[in-house]
């Protein structure tokens, strides 16, 4: 190596020639990522599946939905603690439902220290800790129910508990993501029922929806039904009723009555 050479010029990997430090950096950080291999369709032999196995495939939770359900349960528990516990521990003044009259707030049983706030034109006060117990317990139970439905691996209960958890907080910011997650799970269940997989957009090869419970599929008859104009099939033609073999005697003729003599 000649004096003064810093070693920034090297031979390329393909042997095409020397590369500078800038070229190596551009290849490292500016090179586009390699294309992802196309996702192969799910290879399942549906001909060997029974109706019960197909129903379990439709109603069961898959690994992706399981991760979403666990994340929703953890987030719900964290939101339940954040929205209630600080107000139960410290005496924090919040907006109450009491409406001011002539810029004054009357004392209401259970709410201490009501005062009028001119900026919001509302009565603020400090609720007792018992005021936050019920919403805290309800939201905590519903968030825990999400985890329970994930454990039992059922899509419909999981979607229902997600929507109810969003409603329990009474905030649109919480309701929208939880409602969207519940609708997403039901959409995947509908796609599985119709197409055979939660991500499929066309029916997979060999997929047929299971028959409703309590019913059985009728086997197709080997003999086609006869149609009008094509001749009647002897096996399916309706026979006329047979003649009645019971003997019924004829009624005797009526006797003629002579007219009275004049």
Which strand order do you get reading across the main beta sheet? 3-5-4
Write down the secondary-structure element order.
Answer: EEHHHEEEHHH
Show unreliable segments: 6-13, 37-41, 218-224
Strand content: 5-15%
Q: Sheet with the most strands? A: 3 strands, antiparallel
Inertia-based shape: flat
Helix content: 25-40%
Query: Helix/strand/pairing class, anyone?
Result: mainly alpha
Distance between the termini: 167 Å
Mean pLDDT: 77
Radius of gyration: 40 Å
Number of strands: 5
Number of helices: 6
Describe the structure.
By secondary structure, this protein is mainly α. It has a domain at 52-88 and 128-195. The protein has six helices and five strands. It has helices at 21-29, 51-59, 63-89, 133-152, 155-168, 172-195; strands spanning 10-11, 18-19, 94-95, 112-117, 122-126. The strands form two sheets. The chain has a three-stranded antiparallel beta sheet, with no helix packed on it. Strand 1 (10-11) and strand 2 (18-19) form a beta hairpin. Helix 3 (63-89) packs parallel to helix 5 (155-168). The longest helix has 27 residues, at 63-89. The radius of gyration is 40 Å and the shape is flat. The termini are far apart. The model is unreliable at 6-13, 37-41 and 218-224 (pLDDT under 50).
């Amino acid at each position: 190596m000649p004096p003064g050479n810093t070693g920034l010029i090297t031979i390329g990997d393909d042997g095409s020639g020397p590369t500078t430090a800038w070229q190596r950096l551009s290849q490292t950080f500016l090179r586009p990522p390699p294309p992802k291999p196309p996702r192969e369709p799910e290879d399942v032999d549906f001909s060997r599946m029974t109706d019960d196995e197909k129903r379990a495939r439709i109603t069961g939770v898959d690994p992706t939905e399981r991760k979403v359900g666990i994340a929703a349960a953890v987030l719900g528990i964290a939101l339940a603690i954040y929205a209630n516990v600080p107000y139960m521990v410290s005496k924090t003044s919040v907006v109450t439902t009491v409406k001011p009259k002539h810029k004054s707030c009357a004392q209401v049983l259970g709410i201490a220290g009501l005062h009028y706030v001119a900026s919001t034109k509302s009565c603020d006060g400090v609720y007792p800790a018992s005021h936050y117990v019920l919403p805290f317990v309800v939201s905590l139970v519903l968030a825990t129910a999400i985890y329970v439905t994930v454990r039992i691996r059922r899509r419909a209960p999981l979607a229902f508990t997600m929507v109810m958890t969003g409603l329990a907080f009474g905030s649109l910011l919480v309701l929208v993501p939880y409602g969207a997650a519940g609708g997403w799970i039901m959409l995947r269940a509908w796609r599985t029922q119709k197409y055979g997989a939660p991500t499929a957009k066309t029916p997979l090869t060999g997929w047929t929806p299971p028959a409703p419970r309590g019913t059985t599929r009728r086997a197709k008859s080997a003999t086609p039904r006869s149609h009008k104009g094509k001749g009647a099939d002897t096996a399916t033609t309706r026979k006329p009723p047979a003649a009645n073999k019971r003997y019924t005697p004829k009624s005797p003729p009526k006797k003629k009555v002579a007219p009275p003599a004049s």
